[in-house]
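Methods, example record. To illustrate the input and output format used throughout this study, we show the complete record for EAL domain-containing protein. The sequence lines were provided to the predictor; the line carrying structure tokens was produced by it.
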Amino acid sequence: MDMSADQLASVVTLKTAAPTGTGCIDKVLRALRTHLGMDVAFVSQFRTTDRVFVNVDTDGDGPIKPGDCLSLDVGYCLRVVEGVLPELIADTAHYPVAMELPETQALPIGSHLSVPIYLSDGRLYGTFCCFGYSADDSLNQRDLLVMKVFAELIADRIEGDLTQVRDRVAKHRRISAVLASNQPAIVYQPIFDFHSMAICGWECLSRFNVEPLRSPDQWFNEAADAGLGVELECHAIAAALRGMDALPSGTYLTINCSPQLMLSGRLTELLGPCPASRLVLEITEHAVVNDYTGLIKALKPLRQNGVRVAIDDAGAGYASMRHILQLRPDMIKLDMSLTQNIDTDPQKRAMASALIAFARETGSTIVAEGVETQSELDALRLLGANKVQGYLLGRPLALPDALALVERVAVNSLEEAQPRVTSG
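The corresponding predicted structure is encoded as:
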């Protein structure tokens, strides 16, 4: 059963280009089993006292299935690794040790090929095996060599999977530690009404004061990778909502929210105790929405109750435009890439003007983000933006500092409203 040069080349291609995962290993088992004309191929993982069949390929209902376990003392695998049985057995009838094993007669096993699977650090993972119900004298050393090449490929795939598992476990532990340490901390960035220049809302932003020091989006992405994305979002939202009662009752909170959380059904309970009219759920340009119909359905009862929806990063990319058209938001937030230097860039002004006109036609409110200069503020006011936020007017603040800002704004407004007395 010699493998042709083309077939061997395809093995090498698989080894260098195939993705990691169980599906790849299943394809390897099927390819080799079919080439050898054997009845069953499998990968077994050795544990302390038993072995588990991780991958199995056979036609129809075979004698073993993925997930089955057997003692290491049963069968051929450990005996091959220990040298009690050879790796290549064309006819089990020629090997008394094989014939003494109950499964040789019960299955039956007429021919058998088995090679150990070693990981890059030298650890024995298990074995890669094929067997036929009948003897096959055509099996030879070249078939065994090809099987060893496949075993190396399988080892590469297994090692990649193990690395992914270890990485996921490490991420899970880090995020669990973050949740246990009452992270993230919440800061509130003020949003101002363009007409009165009074504070009308606050964007709630997460800050992680733990190692490794990195941006909030990296923490939330890692949480999603670890399967704790929704949990971390709920944790952050609950922390943000705790500041609502302290902030002026006439202001609202905008809360970043992923489609996954919106679809999870957990928002109703999480937001339930809060006045719906003071809540805005904000979905970003970077959020991937695969099911707009489901998302609209999930948001419907919240919106009917008074919760508003905002689309963030408008103008930053195509996804925000799709979000706007599909979700019909109450607020559209112009991305800072659009608002910065808008006073000197006619193309940015044209784009912002188009979005502001669209919002006016559809009844949405425009919030200009990232405003850092007086000239940008003046340009956006002339274009007709409704609300504004940015470092020019207020940075993200811890709750005590946000309350202090409210007092300063109130004092300034009061002073400006007082009649000026001049000496005659």
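Annotations derived from this record:
The chain has 16 helices and 14 strands.
The first helix runs from residue 5 to 17.
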